[in-house]
């Protein structure tokens, strides 16, 4: 098991498949000038599948989510999903994507064993989309969403970040659109994880502001803590239900006490928190000669031991409210959101 000193158990693994992306969302990446991870440091498909196998067979991981950067840019994605779906015990498999290219690959992903997708879309207005992502790809994203829905990768969840003065007036429109299409919408508070360190608390649109904006059109009744479990999203029934909208108040309503996440970066580092400033290198252990450790079983157990130690050191909380808080050097796009 992946335990920490506060009694939490990590059963949900986030795997970043690449730090590259075909969008440039302003809250995530700069327009240009961001260095990519060096190719030689990137895990191969085999190394990723081996780590997922170690996680599910030795460490109690039950859910695996592929993310990035943009995971659909990874050429081996379908095969990685297929090989992870063949593991015993079989983990639940999901994907977080910006949706570009999903139109083509959604059926193959479903056939490979993918269970669900989350698609990130912050606006359904083409001009606002361009302003937020610096690209004109809204139609691709909408077609990707529809294809995921048609392929049965359901429930299709939609993640939206609101930016003050850009799309913060569009929350009710987004909810109306999501309800119309049967997508589960969740708003995420903007976090200090952008590569250009441009986040400020004053500019962040809070969970409370998002709820106030939605209440201008609907009545919202909280679904309650029991339904939330370890999920970061608090959910509200819209006009009595059955449709629910989620809000992830990562900054103003932190859920660190219930966190069950462990994160693997595309270059083989374990992070026990989005905001951690330390990482544990599994890549070197993975690339060590198994013969020197007595065989592949022993080599896998060495990797598992390093992973357990990395999670044991997890801090109680993100520390964002601490005056000494420092943003981690690694940006969201290279951590895997
Ligand atoms: N490219 C894929 C996507 O956009 O879904 C996967 C990676 S992206 C880093 C994962 C999620 O993190 C997206 O929903 C995105 O909106 C969110 N995200 C990125 N930067 C963020 C930030 N600074 N604060 C809050 N959420 C952020
Ligand atoms: Fe790319 Fe996702 Fe970051 Fe947007 S949020 S720039 S789509 S990695």
From TrEMBL:
<comment type="function">
    <text>Catalyzes the cyclization of GTP to (8S)-3',8-cyclo-7,8-dihydroguanosine 5'-triphosphate.</text>
</comment>
<keyword id="KW-0949">S-adenosyl-L-methionine</keyword>
<dbReference type="InterPro" id="IPR058240">
    <property type="entry name" value="rSAM_sf"/>
</dbReference>
<feature type="binding site">
    <location>
        <position position="259"/>
    </location>
    <ligand>
        <name>[4Fe-4S] cluster 2</name>
    </ligand>
</feature>
<comment type="pathway">
    <text>Cofactor biosynthesis; molybdopterin biosynthesis.</text>
</comment>
<dbReference type="InterPro" id="IPR013785">
    <property type="entry name" value="Aldolase_TIM"/>
</dbReference>
<dbReference type="InterPro" id="IPR013483">
    <property type="entry name" value="MoaA"/>
</dbReference>
<keyword id="KW-0456">Lyase</keyword>
<feature type="binding site">
    <location>
        <position position="14"/>
    </location>
    <ligand>
        <name>GTP</name>
    </ligand>
</feature>
<feature type="binding site">
    <location>
        <position position="96"/>
    </location>
    <ligand>
        <name>GTP</name>
    </ligand>
</feature>
<feature type="binding site">
    <location>
        <position position="191"/>
    </location>
    <ligand>
        <name>S-adenosyl-L-methionine</name>
    </ligand>
</feature>
<protein>
    <recommendedName>
        <fullName>GTP 3',8-cyclase</fullName>
        <ecNumber>4.1.99.22</ecNumber>
    </recommendedName>
</protein>
<feature type="binding site">
    <location>
        <position position="28"/>
    </location>
    <ligand>
        <name>[4Fe-4S] cluster 1</name>
    </ligand>
</feature>
<feature type="binding site">
    <location>
        <position position="21"/>
    </location>
    <ligand>
        <name>[4Fe-4S] cluster 1</name>
    </ligand>
</feature>
<feature type="binding site">
    <location>
        <position position="25"/>
    </location>
    <ligand>
        <name>[4Fe-4S] cluster 1</name>
    </ligand>
</feature>
<dbReference type="InterPro" id="IPR050105">
    <property type="entry name" value="MoCo_biosynth_MoaA/MoaC"/>
</dbReference>
<keyword id="KW-0004">4Fe-4S</keyword>
<feature type="binding site">
    <location>
        <begin position="261"/>
        <end position="263"/>
    </location>
    <ligand>
        <name>GTP</name>
    </ligand>
</feature>
<keyword id="KW-0479">Metal-binding</keyword>
<comment type="subunit">
    <text>Monomer and homodimer.</text>
</comment>
<feature type="binding site">
    <location>
        <position position="27"/>
    </location>
    <ligand>
        <name>S-adenosyl-L-methionine</name>
    </ligand>
</feature>
<comment type="similarity">
    <text>Belongs to the radical SAM superfamily. MoaA family.</text>
</comment>
<feature type="domain" description="Radical SAM core">
    <location>
        <begin position="5"/>
        <end position="223"/>
    </location>
</feature>
<feature type="binding site">
    <location>
        <position position="273"/>
    </location>
    <ligand>
        <name>[4Fe-4S] cluster 2</name>
    </ligand>
</feature>
<keyword id="KW-0501">Molybdenum cofactor biosynthesis</keyword>
<keyword id="KW-0408">Iron</keyword>
<keyword id="KW-0342">GTP-binding</keyword>
<feature type="binding site">
    <location>
        <position position="69"/>
    </location>
    <ligand>
        <name>S-adenosyl-L-methionine</name>
    </ligand>
</feature>
<feature type="binding site">
    <location>
        <position position="65"/>
    </location>
    <ligand>
        <name>GTP</name>
    </ligand>
</feature>
<dbReference type="InterPro" id="IPR010505">
    <property type="entry name" value="MoaA_twitch"/>
</dbReference>
<dbReference type="InterPro" id="IPR007197">
    <property type="entry name" value="rSAM"/>
</dbReference>
<feature type="binding site">
    <location>
        <position position="256"/>
    </location>
    <ligand>
        <name>[4Fe-4S] cluster 2</name>
    </ligand>
</feature>
<dbReference type="Pfam" id="PF06463">
    <property type="entry name" value="Mob_synth_C"/>
</dbReference>
<dbReference type="Pfam" id="PF04055">
    <property type="entry name" value="Radical_SAM"/>
</dbReference>
<dbReference type="InterPro" id="IPR000385">
    <property type="entry name" value="MoaA_NifB_PqqE_Fe-S-bd_CS"/>
</dbReference>
<dbReference type="InterPro" id="IPR040064">
    <property type="entry name" value="MoaA-like"/>
</dbReference>
<feature type="binding site">
    <location>
        <position position="157"/>
    </location>
    <ligand>
        <name>GTP</name>
    </ligand>
</feature>
<keyword id="KW-0411">Iron-sulfur</keyword>
<keyword id="KW-0547">Nucleotide-binding</keyword>
<dbReference type="InterPro" id="IPR006638">
    <property type="entry name" value="Elp3/MiaA/NifB-like_rSAM"/>
</dbReference>
<feature type="binding site">
    <location>
        <position position="120"/>
    </location>
    <ligand>
        <name>S-adenosyl-L-methionine</name>
    </ligand>
</feature>
């Amino acid at each position: 098991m992946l335990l920490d000193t506060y009694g939490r158990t990590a059963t949900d693994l986030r795997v970043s498949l690449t730090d590259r992306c075909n969008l440039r969302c302003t809250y995530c990446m700069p327009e240009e000038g961001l260095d990519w991870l060096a190719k030689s440091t990137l895990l191969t498909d085999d190394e990723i599948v081996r780590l997922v196998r170690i996680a599910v067979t030795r460490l109690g991981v039950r859910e695996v989510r592929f993310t990035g950067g943009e995971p659909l840019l990874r050429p081996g994605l379908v095969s990685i999903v297929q090989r992870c779906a063949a593991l015993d015990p079989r983990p639940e498999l999901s994907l977080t994507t910006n949706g570009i290219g999903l139109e083509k690959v959604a059926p193959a992903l479903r056939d490979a064993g993918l269970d669900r997708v989350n698609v990130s879309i912050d606006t359904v207005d083409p001009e606002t989309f361009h302003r937020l992502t610096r690209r004109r790809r809204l139609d691709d994203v909408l077609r990707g969403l529809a294809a995921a829905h048609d392929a049965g990768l359901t429930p299709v969840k939609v993640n939206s970040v609101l930016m003050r003065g850009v799309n913060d007036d569009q929350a009710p429109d987004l909810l109306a659109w999501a309800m119309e299409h049967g997508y589960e919408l969740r708003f995420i508070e903007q976090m200090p994880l952008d590569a250009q360190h441009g986040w400020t608390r004053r500019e962040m649109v809070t969970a409370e502001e998002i709820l106030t904006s939605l209440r201008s059109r609907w009545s919202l009744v909280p679904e309650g803590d029991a339904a939330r479990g370890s999920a970061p999203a608090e959910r509200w029934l819209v006009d009595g239900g059955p449709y629910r909208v989620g809000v992830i108040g990562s900054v103003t309503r932190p859920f660190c006490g219930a966190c069950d996440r462990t994160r693997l970066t595309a270059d083989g580092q374990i992070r026990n928190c989005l905001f951690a400033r330390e990482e544990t290198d599994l890549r070197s252990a993975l690339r060590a000669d198994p013969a020197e450790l007595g065989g592949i079983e022993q080599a896998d157990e060495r990797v598992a031991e390093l992973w357990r130690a990395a999670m044991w050191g997890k801090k109680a909380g993100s520390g964002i409210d601490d005056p000494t808080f420092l943003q981690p050097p690694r940006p969201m796009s290279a951590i895997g959101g």
